[in-house]
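Ticket #4471: structure export looks truncated?
Reporter: QA, pipeline team
Priority: medium

Steps to reproduce: submit the single chain below to the structure queue and open the exported record.
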Amino acid sequence: MRECEEEIKQACYTERAEDALPSDSISDSEIKSITKYLDREEITNLEGQDCFSAIKTWMEKERDRHANYRERLREKLKLIGKEALVPLENKGDLYHVQLADIAFRLLMTDVYPLARALGISEDKLRSYRRLYLTPSNMSRGTVGVLIKKIKTGRKMCNILKPGFPEISHLLKYAYELSYADLCHVSYGEGSKEANRNKIGQNLGINREITDIMDMLRYWRSLVKCPTYNWRTALAEAVYPVV
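Actual output as written to the record:
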């Protein structure tokens, strides 16, 4: 972890002004995620045998126009009310809790594979997370370096990009979940017992929890792999149910 802190310190001094992660690009994995919630008949204005090939073909045609793929694709999906499937860049400042989460993800790049190899469960790692994210640790180590040196999401993304591209991508497009997001899922159809049980199964929760909000909070407290996409995982668990 000491090496990670030194890398971040060095990157803070050498980070350049230009954006190291273009905000208009869309990766193949993102396209696959987007097309899970699209029917081919919905995007009749794009050519291709299926949704994935249709978007890829369209991006190839747009390349010569130096178009912003994200904004342009959002415009097309807005016609069918699904523009939210294409996230935009998060350009705001970072809260300390976000920096703490990033620091913990960086730590888990070393710890998580070893813990899994030793049979340590994600539930067991929750206690380690609580020990790590203490007030004293917020002023020292990797968390302390991030708080002192980095204020904006864009700068953090640029620093992470060379060594931790997937974590950088998750931060850049705000794939983290807020408490409000969990509350939104817990109301309405999601609160029904049958739906709650199905969502729990889709999230891989193996314990009996009778309240959906408690279930979602427990799931969010688990320690997953550093590149785990919480927002996509929740969407894929809820979408087939409600």
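Status: closed, not a bug. The export was complete when the record was re-opened. Leaving a note from the reviewer for reference: DSSP finds 13 helices and no strands in the chain.
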